[in-house]
Amino acid sequence: MKAFLIRWVVTALAVLAAAHLVNGITYDSWGALALAALILGVLNAVIRPVLLFLSLPFIMVTLGGFILLINAVVLKLTGLISPGFRVEGFWATVFGAIIISVVSWAFSGLFKDENNRVRVLMNKSQLTGIKQARGRVVE
User: Fold this and answer.
1) For the residues 126-139, what does the mean pLDDT come to?
2) Which residues, in sequence order, are bridge partners of residue 86?
3) Nearest to 10 by CA among 120, 121, 108
4) Mind spelling out the 3-state secondary structure of the chain?
5) Angle formed by the axes of helices 30-54 and 2-21, to 10°?
6) What pLDDT shows up at residue 81?
7) How far is Cα 27 from Cα 85, in angstroms, rounded to an integer?
8) What distance in Å separates the CA atoms of residue 120 and residue 108, rounded to the nearest whole number?
9) Alpha carbon distances (Å) from 112 to 11, 27, 45, 47, 107
C-alpha cells in the first residue's frame, strides 16, 4: 500500500509540473489533479503495456522514439476520461508526456532501493549502496 501511495504522489507531482509548464494542460481543482494522476497510473499499468507490445516493430525502428507517442496517447486518454483535467492540442500532449516521463523518472529514482523496489529512504544507513565522490576519486 505504501508503494502505491508513493507512486501516486510521484505521478501527481509529475502531472502538476506538466500542467504548470505546458499551455494546454489544465485542471480545475486539486481533486481533479489527484484523480487524473490515479487514472494515468491505471492506464499506464493496463493499456500502456498492450500498446508497447503491439507497436514493438515501430519502437525498434525509431530506436524507442515511438514510446513518446504512446505516452502522449495515454496522457490524452487521461484527459478524455478524467473530469476536470484537460489536455488540449497535439503539442501540449507531446510536451506534457515528456515532462511527466522525466519528472516521474527523477522522483521514482529517489524512492527505489538496491533491489529496485519502491521504498522511502529515510536515513544514511539505508543508503549503504551509494558511493560518495570526492573530486575525481570514488570511495
Assistant:
1) 56
2) 26
3) 108
4) CHHHHHHHHHHHHHHHHHHHHCCCEEECCHHHHHHHHHHHHHHHHHHHHHHHHHCHHHHHHCCCCHHHHHHHHHHHHHHHHCCCEEECCHHHHHHHHHHHHHHHHHHHHHCECCCCCECCCCCHHHHCCCCCEECCEEC
5) 100
6) 94
7) 4
8) 10
9) 15, 29, 18, 24, 9
Phi, psi (deg, nearest 5) at residue 11: -65, -40
> Residue 79: left if φ>0, alpha if ψ -120 to 50, beta else—which one?
alpha
Distance CA 6, CA 97 (A): 20
31 vs 15: CA distance, rounded Å: 13
Nearest CA to 79 among 70, 89, 68?
89
Q: Which residue has the cell 499551455?
A: 23
Q: How many residues are listed for the chain in this entry?
A: 139
Over residues 79-107, the pLDDT tens digits come to: 999 999 999 999 999 999 999 999 988 88
Question: To 10 degrees, the CA torsion angle through 64, 69, 72, 76?
Answer: -150
**pTM for the whole structure:** 0.75
